[in-house]
C-alpha cells in the first residue's frame, strides 16, 4: 500500500520495549519521547503484524530501547517470523546477544544490526555510561557464529569522540565479517540548533567522498537507496555504508518504513510525535480486524516525508 506521496510501505519497525541496559547520551529512543511502562505481549505484536502483512508489509525490524531486555524476545520473533517472509531483523546494543544469538537464529531471525560506536573501553563508558564493551564485542562474534547474516555494526559519528576511530572500526568490521554503517547523528529540526547537537554532529559526507575514490565496487542497498562501498582493507574485504539522514530529501522520499511504538502506537515518522495512531488500546478493547486494519491505513495515510 502507498501513502499520499506515492511511497510504498514495505517494512515495519517494532519497538518492543523502551527499556535499555545502556544509557547512551545521544539516544533517540526510536522517537519515543513519552515515558510509559506498558508493553505489547507477543500475541498482540503477532496480531498487529498479521494486519501489516495483509497490507503487504513483509519486513520487520525489532528495536527498542534494547529489544533483548525483553525476556520473551525469542517468543516474539518465533511468532512474528512466519508472517514476514522477506526480512526479519533486529537492532541491538549487542551486550546480551551472546546469550540469544543462536536461539534467535533458530526461530527465524535473519540478521542483526549492533550499535558499536567505539572500540575504546573508556570512550564506550563515556558514551553508554556502562562498562560493557566486551559484552557487546562477544555478542557480535556470537551473531556472526550463529549465522545471522549480514551482521551490521552501527557507528554513530560523534565529533571529538570517535572521528579518529574510523579506520579501526573498518578493520574490526572486516576482521569479523561485518558491514560497517557509519551513521550521522540526527535530530528533528527544532533540536538542530541546540548546543548539544552542534557540539557532536559531524556530516559524514567527507567519508563518503573518500570511499568513492577507493571503492572497488559500489553496491546499491535497494531498501534505503544507500550505497555500500566494497574495498580491500589490509588484505581483507571491507564493506561500509554511510547513513546520512539529515536534510536528506532522497532518504525520506524513498522511506518505506512505518513504526510501532512499544506501547502500541503506529508512528508514521521517526522524527515526529504529533501524528501517532493508537492501535493497542482498540485491540485491547475488542476492536474487529476491520477496525484495526482501518487504523493501520489511517497511519499510512498520515505518512509524509520529513525532509522535503
Ligand atoms: N531519519 C531516519 N533515520 C533512520 C530511520 N531508520 C533508521 N534510521 C537511522 O539509521 C540508524 C540505523 O538504524 P538501524 O535500526 O540499524 O536500521 P537501518 O540501518 O536503517 O536498516 P537496515 O540497513 O535495513 O538494517 C538509526 O540509528 C537512525 O539514525 C528512519 O526511518 N528515519
Ligand atoms: S543502546 Fe540504543 S537504545 Fe540503548 S541507550 Fe544506547 S542508543 Fe539508546
Ligand atoms: S520520512 Fe524521513 S525522517 Fe521520517 S521516518 Fe522516513 S526517512 Fe525517517
Automatic annotation (TrEMBL):
Keywords: 4Fe-4S, GTP-binding, Iron, Iron-sulfur, Lyase, Metal-binding, Molybdenum cofactor biosynthesis, Nucleotide-binding, S-adenosyl-L-methionine. It catalyses: GTP + AH2 + S-adenosyl-L-methionine = (8S)-3',8-cyclo-7,8-dihydroguanosine 5'-triphosphate + 5'-deoxyadenosine + L-methionine + A + H(+). [4Fe-4S] cluster 1 binds at residues 20, 24, 27. Residues 4-234 form the Radical SAM core domain. [4Fe-4S] cluster 2 binds at residues 252, 255, 269. GTP binds at residues 13, 61, 91, 152, 257-259. It is an enzyme of class 4 (lyase). Binds 2 [4Fe-4S] clusters. Binds 1 [4Fe-4S] cluster coordinated with 3 cysteines and an exchangeable S-adenosyl-L-methionine and 1 [4Fe-4S] cluster coordinated with 3 cysteines and the GTP-derived substrate. GO terms for biological process: Mo-molybdopterin cofactor biosynthetic process. One of its GO terms (molecular function) is S-adenosyl-L-methionine binding. Transmembrane segments: none annotated. Pathway: Cofactor biosynthesis; molybdopterin biosynthesis. Catalyzes the cyclization of GTP to (8S)-3',8-cyclo-7,8-dihydroguanosine 5'-triphosphate. Belongs to the radical SAM superfamily. MoaA family. This is Probable GTP 3',8-cyclase. It comes from Aciduliprofundum boonei (strain DSM 19572 / T469). The gene is moaA.
Amino acid at each position: 500500500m502507498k501513502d499520499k506521496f506515492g511511497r510504498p510501505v514495505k517494512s515495519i519497525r517494532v519497538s518492543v520495549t523502551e527499556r535499555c541496559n545502556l544509557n547512551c547520551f545521544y539516544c533517540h529512543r526510536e522517537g519515543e519521547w513519552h515515558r510509559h511502562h506498558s508493553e505489547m505481549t507477543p500475541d498482540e505484536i503477532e496480531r498487529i503484524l498479521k494486519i501489516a502483512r495483509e497490507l503487504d508489509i513483509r519486513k520487520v525490524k525489532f528495536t527498542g530501547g534494547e529489544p533483548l531486555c525483553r525476556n520473551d524476545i525469542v517468543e516474539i520473533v518465533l511468532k512474528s517470523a512466519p508472517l514476514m517472509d522477506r526480512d526479519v531483523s533486529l537492532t541491538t546494543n549487542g551486550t546480551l546477544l551472546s546469550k540469544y544469538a543462536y536461539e534467535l537464529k533458530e526461530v527465524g531471525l535473519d540478521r542483526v544490526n549492533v550499535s558499536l560506536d567505539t572500540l575504546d573501553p573508556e570512550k564506550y563508558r563515556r558514551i553508554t555510561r556502562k562498562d560493557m564493551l566486551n559484552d557487546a564485542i562477544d555478542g557480535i562474534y556470537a551473531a556472526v557464529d550463529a549465522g545471522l547474516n549480514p551482521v551490521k555494526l552501527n557507528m554513530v559519528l560523534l565529533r571529538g569522540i570517535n572521528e579518529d576511530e574510523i579506520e579501526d572500526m573498518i578493520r574490526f568490521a572486516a576482521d569479523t565479517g561485518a558491514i560497517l554503517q557509519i551513521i550521522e547523528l540526527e535530530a528533528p529540526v527544532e533540536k538542530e540548533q541546540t548546543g548539544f547537537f552542534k557540539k557532536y554532529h559531524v556530516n559524514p559526507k567527507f567519508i563518503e567522498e573518500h570511499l568513492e575514490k577507493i571503492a572497488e565496487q559500489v553496491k546499491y542497498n535497494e531498501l534505503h537507496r544507500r550505497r555500500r562501498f566494497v574495498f580491500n582493507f589490509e588484505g581483507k574485504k571491507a564493506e561500509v555504508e554511510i547513513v546520512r539522514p539529515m536534510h536528506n530529501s532522497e532518504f525520506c522520499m524513498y522511506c518505506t518504513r512505518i513504526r510501532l511504538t512499544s506501547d502500541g502506537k503506529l508512528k508514521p515518522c521517526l522524527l515526529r510525535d504529533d501524528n501517532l495512531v493508537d492501535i493497542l488500546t482498540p485491540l485491547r478493547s475488542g476492536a474487529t480486524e476491520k477496525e484495526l486494519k482501518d487504523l493501520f491505513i489511517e497511519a499510512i495515510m498520515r505518512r509524509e516525508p520529513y525532509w522535503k
